[in-house]
Amino acid sequence: MERFEEVVSRKGTRSVKWDMAEDLYQDKEVLPMWVADMDFKTPSAVTNAIKERAEHGIFGYTIPDAKVKESITHWLENRHHWKIDQEWITYSPGVIPSLHMIIQSLTEIGDHIIIQTPVYPPFYSVIKDHGRHVVKNALQLKEEQYEIDFADFEKKIKENDVSMFILCNPHNPVGRVWKKEELEKMMDICLKYDVKVVADEIHADLIYKGNVHVPIASLSEEAAKQTITCLSPTKTFNLAGLQASYVVIPDETDKKKVDRHFKNQGMLMLNTLGVTAMEAAYEHGEEWLIELMDVLENHRDYVTQRFQNETSSIRVFPAEGTYLLWLDCRKLGMDQTELKRFMQKEAKVGLNDGASFGEEGEGFMRLNIAAPKSIIEDGVNRIIEAVKAQEQ
What is the CA angle 152-174-333, rounded to 5? Predict the structure, then answer.
Protein backbone atom coordinates (compact mmCIF):
# COMPACT_ATOMS: atom_id res chain seq x y z
CA MET A 1 0.00 0.00 0.00
CA GLU A 2 3.05 2.25 -0.23
CA ARG A 3 1.77 3.93 -3.39
CA PHE A 4 -1.14 5.31 -1.37
CA GLU A 5 1.20 6.83 1.22
CA GLU A 6 3.14 9.00 -1.23
CA VAL A 7 2.36 12.69 -0.76
CA VAL A 8 2.29 14.26 -4.21
CA SER A 9 2.10 18.05 -4.33
CA ARG A 10 -0.80 19.14 -6.52
CA LYS A 11 -0.13 22.85 -6.16
CA GLY A 12 0.60 24.55 -9.43
CA THR A 13 -1.28 21.91 -11.45
CA ARG A 14 -4.46 24.02 -11.73
CA SER A 15 -6.02 21.74 -9.14
CA VAL A 16 -9.47 22.86 -8.01
CA LYS A 17 -8.90 21.23 -4.64
CA TRP A 18 -5.50 22.75 -3.90
CA ASP A 19 -4.95 25.78 -6.12
CA MET A 20 -8.37 27.29 -5.36
CA ALA A 21 -8.13 26.68 -1.63
CA GLU A 22 -6.42 29.94 -0.67
CA ASP A 23 -8.95 32.07 -2.57
CA LEU A 24 -11.86 29.99 -1.31
CA TYR A 25 -10.87 29.94 2.35
CA GLN A 26 -8.89 33.20 2.45
CA ASP A 27 -5.99 31.50 4.22
CA LYS A 28 -2.97 29.77 2.67
CA GLU A 29 -2.56 27.60 5.77
CA VAL A 30 -5.94 25.87 5.36
CA LEU A 31 -5.61 22.15 4.55
CA PRO A 32 -8.02 21.32 1.69
CA MET A 33 -10.13 18.23 2.42
CA TRP A 34 -13.19 19.18 0.45
CA VAL A 35 -13.91 18.63 -3.27
CA ALA A 36 -14.46 14.97 -4.22
CA ASP A 37 -11.29 13.94 -5.96
CA MET A 38 -8.36 11.95 -4.58
CA ASP A 39 -4.79 12.88 -3.71
CA PHE A 40 -3.64 9.49 -5.02
CA LYS A 41 -1.99 8.80 -8.36
CA THR A 42 -4.20 6.92 -10.79
CA PRO A 43 -3.22 3.29 -11.59
CA SER A 44 0.05 3.00 -13.50
CA ALA A 45 -1.74 1.09 -16.26
CA VAL A 46 -3.83 4.20 -16.91
CA THR A 47 -0.82 6.52 -16.89
CA ASN A 48 1.07 4.22 -19.22
CA ALA A 49 -1.87 4.01 -21.62
CA ILE A 50 -2.12 7.82 -21.69
CA LYS A 51 1.64 8.14 -22.30
CA GLU A 52 1.51 5.65 -25.15
CA ARG A 53 -1.43 7.46 -26.72
CA ALA A 54 0.29 10.85 -26.26
CA GLU A 55 3.46 9.60 -27.94
CA HIS A 56 1.44 8.93 -31.08
CA GLY A 57 1.34 12.70 -31.38
CA ILE A 58 -1.98 13.15 -33.20
CA PHE A 59 -5.13 14.03 -31.26
CA GLY A 60 -7.83 14.28 -33.88
CA TYR A 61 -11.52 13.49 -33.56
CA THR A 62 -11.86 10.31 -31.53
CA ILE A 63 -14.68 7.78 -31.16
CA PRO A 64 -15.06 5.15 -28.44
CA ASP A 65 -15.12 1.88 -30.40
CA ALA A 66 -16.53 -1.56 -29.59
CA LYS A 67 -13.48 -2.34 -27.44
CA VAL A 68 -14.31 0.56 -25.12
CA LYS A 69 -17.92 -0.60 -24.83
CA GLU A 70 -16.70 -4.10 -24.05
CA SER A 71 -14.55 -2.76 -21.20
CA ILE A 72 -17.62 -1.00 -19.77
CA THR A 73 -20.02 -3.93 -20.08
CA HIS A 74 -17.48 -6.35 -18.65
CA TRP A 75 -16.81 -4.06 -15.70
CA LEU A 76 -20.50 -3.68 -14.85
CA GLU A 77 -21.11 -7.40 -15.11
CA ASN A 78 -17.99 -8.38 -13.20
CA ARG A 79 -18.24 -5.78 -10.41
CA HIS A 80 -21.99 -5.29 -10.09
CA HIS A 81 -23.55 -8.41 -11.67
CA TRP A 82 -25.39 -6.17 -14.10
CA LYS A 83 -25.47 -7.38 -17.69
CA ILE A 84 -26.22 -4.55 -20.10
CA ASP A 85 -26.54 -4.27 -23.85
CA GLN A 86 -23.79 -2.18 -25.45
CA GLU A 87 -26.46 -0.31 -27.40
CA TRP A 88 -27.75 1.18 -24.13
CA ILE A 89 -24.58 3.27 -23.69
CA THR A 90 -24.45 7.00 -24.39
CA TYR A 91 -21.19 8.85 -23.73
CA SER A 92 -20.96 12.13 -21.82
CA PRO A 93 -18.20 14.40 -20.48
CA GLY A 94 -19.59 14.02 -16.95
CA VAL A 95 -22.51 13.07 -14.74
CA ILE A 96 -23.63 16.68 -14.24
CA PRO A 97 -23.81 17.39 -17.99
CA SER A 98 -25.75 14.12 -18.29
CA LEU A 99 -28.26 15.24 -15.68
CA HIS A 100 -28.79 18.50 -17.55
CA MET A 101 -29.39 16.61 -20.80
CA ILE A 102 -31.70 14.02 -19.22
CA ILE A 103 -33.86 16.57 -17.43
CA GLN A 104 -34.27 18.68 -20.55
CA SER A 105 -35.06 15.73 -22.80
CA LEU A 106 -37.37 13.70 -20.54
CA THR A 107 -39.26 16.34 -18.53
CA GLU A 108 -41.09 19.58 -19.28
CA ILE A 109 -40.77 23.10 -17.87
CA GLY A 110 -42.86 23.24 -14.70
CA ASP A 111 -42.43 19.53 -13.91
CA HIS A 112 -41.65 18.40 -10.36
CA ILE A 113 -38.54 16.32 -9.66
CA ILE A 114 -37.93 14.61 -6.32
CA ILE A 115 -34.57 14.28 -4.55
CA GLN A 116 -33.51 12.86 -1.17
CA THR A 117 -31.91 15.51 0.99
CA PRO A 118 -29.32 16.37 2.21
CA VAL A 119 -27.79 15.66 -1.18
CA TYR A 120 -25.10 16.64 -3.69
CA PRO A 121 -25.64 20.38 -4.38
CA PRO A 122 -25.87 20.18 -8.21
CA PHE A 123 -29.04 18.10 -7.84
CA TYR A 124 -30.81 21.32 -6.89
CA SER A 125 -29.34 23.46 -9.66
CA VAL A 126 -29.87 21.00 -12.52
CA ILE A 127 -33.58 21.05 -11.66
CA LYS A 128 -34.03 24.76 -11.00
CA ASP A 129 -31.88 25.95 -13.91
CA HIS A 130 -34.32 24.41 -16.38
CA GLY A 131 -37.53 25.70 -14.87
CA ARG A 132 -38.42 22.50 -13.04
CA HIS A 133 -39.41 22.34 -9.36
CA VAL A 134 -37.54 20.61 -6.53
CA VAL A 135 -39.53 18.25 -4.32
CA LYS A 136 -37.69 17.06 -1.21
CA ASN A 137 -38.00 13.64 0.40
CA ALA A 138 -35.79 14.35 3.41
CA LEU A 139 -33.81 11.40 4.69
CA GLN A 140 -34.60 10.50 8.29
CA LEU A 141 -31.71 10.85 10.70
CA LYS A 142 -31.77 7.87 13.04
CA GLU A 143 -29.36 7.06 15.84
CA GLU A 144 -26.74 5.33 13.69
CA GLN A 145 -27.63 6.14 10.08
CA TYR A 146 -29.98 7.83 7.64
CA GLU A 147 -33.09 6.05 6.45
CA ILE A 148 -35.69 6.65 3.74
CA ASP A 149 -39.17 7.84 4.70
CA PHE A 150 -41.08 5.74 2.17
CA ALA A 151 -44.49 7.07 3.21
CA ASP A 152 -43.31 10.62 2.62
CA PHE A 153 -41.65 9.56 -0.66
CA GLU A 154 -44.94 8.24 -2.03
CA LYS A 155 -46.98 11.10 -0.59
CA LYS A 156 -44.74 13.75 -2.18
CA ILE A 157 -44.78 11.97 -5.54
CA LYS A 158 -48.56 11.68 -5.55
CA GLU A 159 -49.33 15.20 -4.28
CA ASN A 160 -46.88 16.93 -6.64
CA ASP A 161 -47.46 14.75 -9.70
CA VAL A 162 -43.70 14.10 -9.75
CA SER A 163 -42.34 13.04 -13.14
CA MET A 164 -38.73 12.21 -12.23
CA PHE A 165 -36.70 10.97 -9.26
CA ILE A 166 -32.95 11.59 -9.05
CA LEU A 167 -31.47 8.84 -6.90
CA CYS A 168 -28.01 9.15 -5.36
CA ASN A 169 -26.52 5.70 -4.68
CA PRO A 170 -24.13 5.46 -2.93
CA HIS A 171 -25.44 8.58 -1.32
CA ASN A 172 -23.37 11.75 -1.25
CA PRO A 173 -22.90 13.07 1.44
CA VAL A 174 -24.38 10.67 4.04
CA GLY A 175 -22.51 7.59 2.81
CA ARG A 176 -25.42 5.16 2.62
CA VAL A 177 -25.32 2.28 0.14
CA TRP A 178 -29.01 1.57 -0.32
CA LYS A 179 -29.96 -2.04 0.28
CA LYS A 180 -31.78 -4.06 -2.35
CA GLU A 181 -34.98 -3.99 -0.29
CA GLU A 182 -34.85 -0.20 -0.06
CA LEU A 183 -34.28 0.11 -3.80
CA GLU A 184 -37.17 -2.24 -4.51
CA LYS A 185 -39.55 -0.17 -2.38
CA MET A 186 -38.55 3.04 -4.16
CA MET A 187 -38.81 1.41 -7.57
CA ASP A 188 -42.25 -0.03 -6.80
CA ILE A 189 -43.50 3.46 -5.95
CA CYS A 190 -41.91 4.97 -9.05
CA LEU A 191 -43.47 2.32 -11.27
CA LYS A 192 -46.84 2.82 -9.60
CA TYR A 193 -46.85 6.54 -10.47
CA ASP A 194 -44.80 6.27 -13.67
CA VAL A 195 -41.91 8.31 -12.27
CA LYS A 196 -38.73 8.14 -14.33
CA VAL A 197 -35.71 7.17 -12.21
CA VAL A 198 -32.35 8.84 -12.88
CA ALA A 199 -29.68 7.05 -10.86
CA ASP A 200 -26.42 8.85 -10.12
CA GLU A 201 -24.21 5.85 -9.33
CA ILE A 202 -20.82 7.48 -9.85
CA HIS A 203 -19.56 6.18 -6.47
CA ALA A 204 -20.75 2.62 -7.23
CA ASP A 205 -17.26 1.08 -7.11
CA LEU A 206 -16.33 2.67 -3.78
CA ILE A 207 -18.06 0.25 -1.44
CA TYR A 208 -16.84 -0.87 1.98
CA LYS A 209 -16.84 -4.47 3.21
CA GLY A 210 -20.23 -5.73 4.37
CA ASN A 211 -22.09 -3.64 1.79
CA VAL A 212 -23.12 -4.38 -1.79
CA HIS A 213 -23.95 -1.87 -4.49
CA VAL A 214 -27.04 -2.91 -6.44
CA PRO A 215 -27.73 -0.88 -9.61
CA ILE A 216 -31.40 0.01 -9.32
CA ALA A 217 -31.86 -0.73 -13.03
CA SER A 218 -30.73 -4.33 -12.41
CA LEU A 219 -33.75 -5.14 -10.21
CA SER A 220 -35.94 -6.24 -13.10
CA GLU A 221 -36.60 -5.68 -16.78
CA GLU A 222 -39.40 -3.31 -15.82
CA ALA A 223 -37.04 -1.37 -13.53
CA ALA A 224 -34.43 -1.16 -16.29
CA LYS A 225 -36.86 0.48 -18.70
CA GLN A 226 -37.87 2.98 -16.02
CA THR A 227 -34.26 3.96 -15.25
CA ILE A 228 -31.45 6.03 -16.70
CA THR A 229 -28.14 5.35 -14.92
CA CYS A 230 -25.20 7.76 -14.84
CA LEU A 231 -21.80 6.17 -14.35
CA SER A 232 -18.12 6.95 -14.73
CA PRO A 233 -14.67 5.63 -13.80
CA THR A 234 -13.62 9.14 -12.77
CA LYS A 235 -14.41 8.88 -9.05
CA THR A 236 -13.14 5.30 -8.86
CA PHE A 237 -9.76 5.93 -10.47
CA ASN A 238 -9.29 9.70 -9.91
CA LEU A 239 -9.81 10.73 -13.53
CA ALA A 240 -12.24 13.64 -13.12
CA GLY A 241 -10.11 16.08 -15.10
CA LEU A 242 -10.25 13.80 -18.16
CA GLN A 243 -14.04 14.14 -18.41
CA ALA A 244 -15.20 10.69 -19.45
CA SER A 245 -18.52 9.23 -18.34
CA TYR A 246 -21.49 7.42 -19.79
CA VAL A 247 -25.23 6.92 -19.39
CA VAL A 248 -26.99 3.56 -19.54
CA ILE A 249 -30.47 3.90 -21.08
CA PRO A 250 -32.29 0.60 -21.69
CA ASP A 251 -35.55 2.15 -22.95
CA GLU A 252 -35.21 2.77 -26.69
CA THR A 253 -37.56 5.77 -26.75
CA ASP A 254 -35.80 7.46 -23.81
CA LYS A 255 -32.41 6.83 -25.37
CA LYS A 256 -33.41 8.45 -28.64
CA LYS A 257 -34.66 11.53 -26.80
CA VAL A 258 -31.51 11.84 -24.66
CA ASP A 259 -29.18 11.18 -27.60
CA ARG A 260 -30.97 13.82 -29.64
CA HIS A 261 -30.46 16.36 -26.87
CA PHE A 262 -26.76 15.55 -26.58
CA LYS A 263 -26.46 15.99 -30.35
CA ASN A 264 -28.38 19.28 -30.32
CA GLN A 265 -26.00 20.62 -27.68
CA GLY A 266 -22.96 19.61 -29.69
CA MET A 267 -21.84 16.89 -27.26
CA LEU A 268 -20.80 14.36 -29.89
CA MET A 269 -17.58 12.82 -28.59
CA LEU A 270 -15.29 12.40 -25.57
CA ASN A 271 -11.82 13.71 -24.85
CA THR A 272 -9.27 11.53 -26.65
CA LEU A 273 -7.26 10.82 -23.51
CA GLY A 274 -10.44 10.33 -21.49
CA VAL A 275 -11.42 7.44 -23.76
CA THR A 276 -7.96 5.93 -23.37
CA ALA A 277 -8.05 6.29 -19.58
CA MET A 278 -11.54 4.81 -19.23
CA GLU A 279 -10.64 1.71 -21.19
CA ALA A 280 -7.34 1.19 -19.35
CA ALA A 281 -8.92 1.71 -15.93
CA TYR A 282 -11.71 -0.77 -16.53
CA GLU A 283 -9.39 -3.35 -18.11
CA HIS A 284 -6.44 -3.12 -15.72
CA GLY A 285 -7.50 -1.18 -12.61
CA GLU A 286 -9.25 -3.75 -10.45
CA GLU A 287 -6.22 -4.74 -8.36
CA TRP A 288 -5.48 -1.07 -7.66
CA LEU A 289 -9.12 -0.52 -6.64
CA ILE A 290 -9.10 -3.44 -4.20
CA GLU A 291 -6.01 -1.99 -2.54
CA LEU A 292 -7.55 1.51 -2.54
CA MET A 293 -10.64 0.28 -0.69
CA ASP A 294 -8.50 -1.27 2.04
CA VAL A 295 -6.74 2.09 2.44
CA LEU A 296 -9.99 4.06 2.51
CA GLU A 297 -11.56 1.67 5.00
CA ASN A 298 -8.56 2.11 7.27
CA HIS A 299 -8.88 5.90 6.94
CA ARG A 300 -12.62 5.81 7.64
CA ASP A 301 -12.11 3.75 10.78
CA TYR A 302 -9.17 5.88 11.92
CA VAL A 303 -11.13 9.14 11.62
CA THR A 304 -14.20 7.63 13.27
CA GLN A 305 -12.23 6.27 16.22
CA ARG A 306 -10.23 9.46 16.74
CA PHE A 307 -13.35 11.60 17.03
CA GLN A 308 -15.17 8.98 19.09
CA ASN A 309 -12.29 8.64 21.56
CA GLU A 310 -11.17 12.26 21.83
CA THR A 311 -14.27 14.45 21.62
CA SER A 312 -18.00 14.13 22.13
CA SER A 313 -18.67 17.25 20.06
CA ILE A 314 -18.25 15.70 16.61
CA ARG A 315 -19.72 12.42 15.43
CA VAL A 316 -18.86 10.60 12.21
CA PHE A 317 -21.69 8.80 10.47
CA PRO A 318 -20.59 5.27 9.45
CA ALA A 319 -19.98 5.47 5.70
CA GLU A 320 -20.96 2.37 3.75
CA GLY A 321 -19.54 3.77 0.53
CA THR A 322 -17.71 6.78 -1.03
CA TYR A 323 -14.54 8.40 0.36
CA LEU A 324 -16.58 11.19 1.94
CA LEU A 325 -17.39 11.34 5.65
CA TRP A 326 -20.40 13.20 7.04
CA LEU A 327 -19.50 14.95 10.29
CA ASP A 328 -22.23 15.82 12.78
CA CYS A 329 -20.97 18.98 14.49
CA ARG A 330 -24.22 20.10 16.09
CA LYS A 331 -22.96 19.54 19.63
CA LEU A 332 -20.48 22.36 19.10
CA GLY A 333 -23.50 24.63 19.52
CA MET A 334 -22.68 26.87 16.56
CA ASP A 335 -24.87 28.15 13.76
CA GLN A 336 -23.68 27.32 10.25
CA THR A 337 -21.80 30.58 9.73
CA GLU A 338 -19.96 30.08 13.02
CA LEU A 339 -19.25 26.43 12.18
CA LYS A 340 -17.74 27.26 8.79
CA ARG A 341 -15.63 30.01 10.35
CA PHE A 342 -14.49 27.66 13.13
CA MET A 343 -13.29 25.01 10.67
CA GLN A 344 -11.52 27.53 8.46
CA LYS A 345 -10.09 29.95 11.00
CA GLU A 346 -9.57 27.85 14.12
CA ALA A 347 -9.03 24.31 12.81
CA LYS A 348 -7.62 25.53 9.48
CA VAL A 349 -9.18 22.76 7.43
CA GLY A 350 -11.15 23.24 4.26
CA LEU A 351 -14.30 21.10 4.40
CA ASN A 352 -17.55 21.18 2.46
CA ASP A 353 -20.27 23.23 4.12
CA GLY A 354 -23.07 20.90 5.21
CA ALA A 355 -25.71 23.51 4.42
CA SER A 356 -24.71 23.44 0.74
CA PHE A 357 -26.37 20.01 0.61
CA GLY A 358 -29.66 21.51 1.79
CA GLU A 359 -31.11 22.84 5.02
CA GLU A 360 -30.99 19.30 6.44
CA GLY A 361 -27.20 19.61 6.34
CA GLU A 362 -26.99 22.52 8.75
CA GLY A 363 -24.70 21.63 11.65
CA PHE A 364 -22.76 19.19 9.48
CA MET A 365 -19.57 19.26 7.41
CA ARG A 366 -18.21 16.86 4.76
CA LEU A 367 -14.65 15.51 4.96
CA ASN A 368 -12.72 13.88 2.09
CA ILE A 369 -10.50 10.98 3.25
CA ALA A 370 -9.01 10.08 -0.16
CA ALA A 371 -5.50 11.24 0.69
CA PRO A 372 -2.33 9.78 2.19
CA LYS A 373 -2.61 8.86 5.88
CA SER A 374 -0.28 11.68 6.91
CA ILE A 375 -2.68 14.25 5.46
CA ILE A 376 -5.67 12.59 7.15
CA GLU A 377 -3.84 12.59 10.48
CA ASP A 378 -2.94 16.26 10.07
CA GLY A 379 -6.53 17.22 9.32
CA VAL A 380 -7.99 15.23 12.21
CA ASN A 381 -5.39 16.62 14.61
CA ARG A 382 -6.25 20.18 13.57
CA ILE A 383 -9.97 19.67 14.13
CA ILE A 384 -9.62 17.89 17.48
CA GLU A 385 -7.14 20.45 18.81
CA ALA A 386 -9.44 23.30 17.79
CA VAL A 387 -12.44 21.57 19.41
CA LYS A 388 -10.55 21.03 22.67
CA ALA A 389 -9.47 24.67 22.71
CA GLN A 390 -13.09 25.69 22.12
CA GLU A 391 -14.30 23.52 24.98
CA GLN A 392 -11.85 24.96 27.55
Answer: 95
